[in-house]
C-alpha cells in the first residue's frame, strides 16, 4: 500500500522537500515491514499520540470518500462492486483536497497545543 501511495513524489510535491509523514500507532503502522519501508526511504514520521484524529487529516479524506461512494443513497449489491467504487474514489481524491488538508496542519497543531491536547474543531 505504501509503495502504491506515491509518497515519494506526492509528499515533496505537496509539502516541499522537508515534508513529514503522519500516521498513528495502529498495529499495521508499527509493523516491522512498515518501519523498514520508512527507514529505507528516509521518510520522517511525525511523532504524536496513537489516537489523535485532531491531527490526522486522513479522517477528513475517509469522510469525503464515504460521501462520494454512497452519493445519492447509492447501495451496493456485491462486495466487488463496493470495492471497485472505493478504489475508484480513492484514485480520484482531488488534489485540491489534499493541498487544503496539508496546508491546515500548522493550524491543527497550534489548536491542539492551545487546547492542551483536548478536542479541537477539526
UniProtKB/TrEMBL annotation:
<dbReference type="InterPro" id="IPR036397">
    <property type="entry name" value="RNaseH_sf"/>
</dbReference>
<dbReference type="GO" id="GO:0003676">
    <property type="term" value="F:nucleic acid binding"/>
</dbReference>
<dbReference type="Pfam" id="PF13358">
    <property type="entry name" value="DDE_3"/>
</dbReference>
<feature type="domain" description="Tc1-like transposase DDE">
    <location>
        <begin position="18"/>
        <end position="83"/>
    </location>
</feature>
<dbReference type="InterPro" id="IPR038717">
    <property type="entry name" value="Tc1-like_DDE_dom"/>
</dbReference>
<protein>
    <recommendedName>
        <fullName>Tc1-like transposase DDE domain-containing protein</fullName>
    </recommendedName>
</protein>
Amino acid at each position: 500500500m505504501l509503495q502504491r501511495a506515491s509518497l515519494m513524489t506526492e509528499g515533496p510535491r505537496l509539502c516541499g522537500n522537508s515534508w513529514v509523514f503522519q500516521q498513528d500507532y495502529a498495529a499495521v503502522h508499527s509493523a516491522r515491514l512498515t518501519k523498514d519501508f520508512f527507514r529505507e526511504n528516509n521518510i520522517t514520521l511525525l511523532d504524536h499520540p496513537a489516537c489523535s484524529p485532531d491531527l490526522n487529516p486522513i479522517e477528513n479524506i475517509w469522510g469525503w470518500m464515504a460521501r462520494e461512494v454512497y452519493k445519492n443513497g447509492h447501495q451496493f449489491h456485491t462486495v466487488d462492486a463496493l470495492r471497485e467504487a472505493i478504489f475508484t474514489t480513492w484514485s480520484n481524491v482531488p488534489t485540491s483536497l489534499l493541498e487544503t488538508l496539508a496546508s491546515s496542519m500548522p493550524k491543527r497543531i497550534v489548536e491542539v497545543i492551545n487546547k492542551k491536547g483536548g478536542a479541537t474543531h477539526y
